Amino acid sequence: MQxxxxxxYDRTWTETLGLAQWAERSGFHSFWYADHLMPNTDDSTxxxxxxxxxxxxxxxxxxxxxxxxxxxxxxxxxxxxxxLLAKRATTTDHxxxxxxxxxxxxxxxxxxxxxxxxxxxxxxPRVGRFAEAIEIVHRLFREEAVNFHGTSFQVTDAPFxxxxxxxxxxxxxxxxxPRMLRLTARWAEEWNTWGDPDEVGRRTDRFHAxxxxxxxxxxxxxxSAQAMVFYTPTSEARARIEGDIAPGRSLVGGAQxxxxxxxxxxxxxxxxxxIPDFTLGDTPEERADTYAxxxxxxxxxxx
Length: 303
Description:
303 residues, alpha/beta, TIM Barrel
């Protein structure tokens, strides 16, 4: 299994770039970055915290760091028009020499939509909007000109040049819901999902059913996952984080416990696991130290 880093979007550019450079030197596979315009809030009110823009960060990392894969997690089609997303991803792909991955999502974060005036439809119409967007992007990457006339999006004799470096580039969808899984199986190259091994196992059953429903071999999709990682090498460290653990979305333990938990993802067929920095420390120094410890004591035993 391959491993990736995922810094929060409120980190400084200096810390973000430093992590990408360290990850490249250390053999990590990808650099993931969330596509949000502000931090989330529980009550959907605006948050005045920092949030760097996803595709600018990915292009900047791609220009400076020469090998690591660049993944948006995930760009919401409620905010970004699919043609603009396809252009951003392809431009980043050319800047980086063919390393971009377009993570595509239906949109969900209420406060950024409300504050900036983006429409966030009810779940049914929102997935319908996503279905139109992912088909348009998929076709733009492959066809000389695209015609599509849907409810949310219309393109007419739409050219798309240049194409991605390798002729196309991967579309990733992060989901566990049945309808979104069927759209993933039909149009995407990579399926991503949150969860501990038990949750990912349940979602994998639904993923296989979705592939069967649309006639897609599940082995033709790359699979990735992530969870909150709480590295607790001592009982004192474990006690300090007990109230922060999100059930079904967290891995907790010392080095061997984490190795054992991550090995279960391998058994489930997961190709790549991303380690978010959200739980790794309160300062850049703490986060860097925890990443280094995880690399030396956990990741090195699974790659």
